[in-house]
Design a protein that fits this description.
The chain has helices spanning 2-13, 106-115, 146-153, 161-165, 168-174, 393-399, and strands spanning 21-25, 27-31, 35-38, 51-56, 60-70, 75-81, 94-99, 179-190, 195-196, 198-205, 211-225, 232-246, 253-266, 269-270, 274-288, 293-313, 316-336, 341-349, 352-353, 360-361, 367-376, 381-391, 404-417. The protein is mostly beta strands and 418 residues long. The protein folds into 2 domains: 15-115, Thrombin, subunit H, CATH 2.40.10.340; 163-417, Porin (Beta Barrel), CATH 2.40.160. The radius of gyration is 28 Å and the shape is elongated. The termini are far apart.
């Protein structure tokens, strides 16, 4: 008796709670009576009679539903309200948000009681009569040519994989709605000059099902006055990024293309004066996602690295230029602690490879780790704490600065849509 009760309680603890969210939800099959099959089940905490809201990442709230049956990785849902039918499609990716049982309409509760158990429909199998299904035809040509393949294969199947992944209409639709985040840091302190700074910028991106574009610009400004010489030293850092992703080329793989820009100005010396990293094509492996972990990704992209650094020699400023290849490895995770608090961490390792000798400099990693705690104050206003660690040996070898820098900042962020 106690064992049975324990099993029941353990399953009830896994039920979809009112604040739970599941991403990357896809409709696999549409059945009569407004019943759909999705790619989430018991392993994701879904149980029979769970009540949920189905939303599209770009178009927003699309429908409400009740779970009729769940297996380990699948579940069947009765759709009973569709306020946004245009966003309801088997081609889209959705977010499933739990809703409390008390919000279930009375008529739906009565419908479930009257319907009883939901029986999963069986697939119809075509019968083969008149001939032996295991016999082989011997009328195949001895030699196939490209012309022989045109009719049976068809034009669509002969397209390159890149062409199949590009849909111009979907691209325009995915970029039709763009979200902007404006942020400023009333407090920021970095270890490289032991000074408080001002940090501000913006970040933009869309949450589309296939084509995703992200832009980011950030600037840091610091002013220090020497108490003895009364001289003022100014530092300025500028960072920018442009990133383009074709999401889910396969269920676990996406493409990645990006451009990074960085400059750090210490008085009259730029360390670097300009630093570009260009990656034409890389890939992201989606390792895991669930109702708690929004994503856990690992990426690799080769980056062409162009860096110019100001150097002081005998009182004269000259510029050192260097280019090469960096192997960009990125590991990113984001987890939701509850409905208002989340954390995100992105680690970049970019070892340098000299194009002349092809030697990889294992101590020249251009490392950065960005840890962020996010608190949602309202639907559009957020409070973030950022802890950023940077390590770059060129700061030390070219400019005599420490080779590592730690940045602590408190940010206020406001999100809106264009």
């Amino acid at each position: 008796m106690w064992i049975i009760l324990g099993i029941i309680l353990s399953f009830s603890a896994l039920a979809l709670e009112s604040f739970d969210k599941l991403g990357n939800v896809k409709i696999l099959k549409v059945l009569p009576n407004n019943i759909v099959m999705i790619n989430r089940g018991l392993e994701d905490g879904i149980l029979r009679h769970d009540h949920a809201k189905i939303s599209h990442e770009l178009n927003g709230y699309s429908s409400r539903a009740i779970c009729l049956k769940a297996s380990s990785d699948l579940s069947y849902w009765k759709i009973y309200r569709v306020p946004h039918s245009e966003a309801f499609s088997m081609d889209n990716v959705y977010v499933l948000s739990g809703i409390s049982d008390k919000e279930i309409p009375k008529r739906m509760g009565q419908w479930i009681e009257n319907e009883g158990e939901f029986v999963e429909p069986k697939e119809k199998v075509k019968s083969v009569t008149g001939t032996d299904p295991f016999s082989l035809s011997n009328d195949l040509p001895e030699k196939l040519t490209e012309r022989d393949l045109i009719e049976p294969v068809g034009l669509d199947r002969r397209k390159l994989y890149v062409e199949q992944s590009w849909n111009q209409e979907q691209f325009k639709k995915d970029l039709s709605s763009y979200n902007i985040s404006l942020f400023a840091s009333p407090f920021m302190r970095q270890s490289i000059n032991q000074a408080e700074s001002l940090r501000y910028g913006f970040k933009g991106g869309n949450l589309a099902s296939k084509y995703r574009l992200m832009t980011q610009f950030e600037q840091q400004q610091t002013q220090i006055k020497d108490p003895l010489t009364k001289e003022t030293v100014r530092t300025r850092g500028t960072n920018g990024q442009l990133q383009f992703v074709i999401h889910h080329l396969t269920p676990s793989l996406s493409s990645l293309s990006l451009i990074n820009y960085n400059s750090q100005q210490f008085s009259d010396l730029g360390t670097p004066a300009s630093h570009w990293q260009v990656g034409v094509l890389g890939f992201t492996w989606h390792m895991h996602d669930s109702k708690t972990w929004e994503y856990m990704d690992f990426s690799y992209i080769p980056l062409y690295d162009i860096r110019k650094t100001d150097v002081m020699n005998n009182g004269q400023v000259s510029q050192d230029s260097k280019s090469g290849l960096r192997h960009g490895f990125r590991f990113g995770v984001k987890s939701r602690i509850n409905e208002r608090v989340a954390f995100e961490n992105i680690l970049w390792l970019r070892p340098y490879q000299d194009l002349a000798s092809w030697m990889i400099e294992t101590d020249n990693l251009n490392l950065s780790n960005d840890l962020k705690f996010i608190v949602s104050l309202t639907n559009n206003l957020f409070f973030d704490y950022n802890l950023i660690y940077q390590k770059d040996k060129i700061w030390k070898t070219k400019s005599g600065l420490p080779d590592s820098n730690t940045i602590n900042s408190l940010n206020l962020r406001y999100d809106f849509s264009l």
